[in-house]
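User: Show me a protein chain along with its predicted structure.
Assistant: Here is one chain, sequence first, then structure tokens.
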Amino acid sequence: MPTKPQNKPDKKNLIKKVVLAYSGGLDTSVILKWLQDEYQCEVVTFTADIGQGEEVDPVRSKAEALGIKEIYIENLEEEFVRDYVFPMFRANAVYEGEYLLGTSIARPLIAKRMVEIANATGADAISHGATGKGNDQIRFELGAYALKPGVHVIAPWREWDLLSREKLMAYAEQHGIEVDFNKGKKSPYSMDANLLHISYEGGILEDPWAEAEEEMWRWTVSPENAPDKASYIELTYLRGDIVAIDGKEKTPAQVLTELNRLGGENGIGRLDIVENRYIGMKSRGCYETPGGTIMLRAHRAMESLTLDREVAHLKDELMPRYAKLIYNGYWWSAEREMLQQMIDASQQFVNGVVRVKLYKGNVDVVGRKSDDSLFDENIATFEDDGGAYDHKDADGFIKLNALRLRMQAHRRA
């Protein structure tokens, strides 16, 4: 006799407390109230300052106005650059040949802190404001499940019917939620910023033929308006990371902040691409990554002097896989961690100084030196090398490598 199907407990009845990634903007302010009403649960807010360039302190009063007792506001800039951005740049990671992964690399840190706060406060769930069309929902949730397998995830954009800005505004007005949507002129773009980059989507950018408006860009001057005189900087590397600029030691966050300033002044780091989202659609986005653009070029220059050829080539072969893991949200996966160990091991001798010229949107490497250099001037010279290299050795090398080509030629004859 068949047994009756067991009714699964309502997820809403299981959740007593939730940690919300809270920015204080329209979306997350509505989400906060919606969680209180729909789930009848206690909400803990978490706001991460990772260099987005906006004041984060006002979110405390906004959260308090909605009755929130546990409010976390944390400056994570140093951790972000030291433990996420720098390791990624040791790999020279670029997604689809262009994108420097500015949004992608911030999500694992935010997911980690949400889980840690959930553990500290006894929360059953986490919640975020990422939409059902984007990559961020995947990144947040894969990170959360990797670090806390039994956690519940509430993604309002996949549950509610408030699927337009007008509906969100009406909900906010109905419930007396203080948001800033009536103050000043709102940007027509959806933007995300941190210490590595700022991104722009939506508005006229939804037409891939339309050129981005000059007024959109916030961090960089246009290359046409950049200074007519080039800027030169020297970057000191230790085990693959920049530790000083022009001989002055700096923390990771200070390094990126200074490179952003220098790159922005010289019109460096603008990008306009159509990318393939993990969710399955194509998306057009614009990015400003001035400091990261400089870092990538300089790091490759340092490696060119200090890495063995086959190690460098192996890194280049694995880099697209590594970049895709980050883009798709697998920072906390076993395979990314395995690749990271290999990448970090390769950086033992990536030490020295790179001199870079910044001029009207261009980053030119004009000098590099290292005590761990594999460059031997005595061998590489076009002048008399004093017997350091025997040219006759090339004869056998070429003939051995040509053997299979000659065999193929005989077969075709």
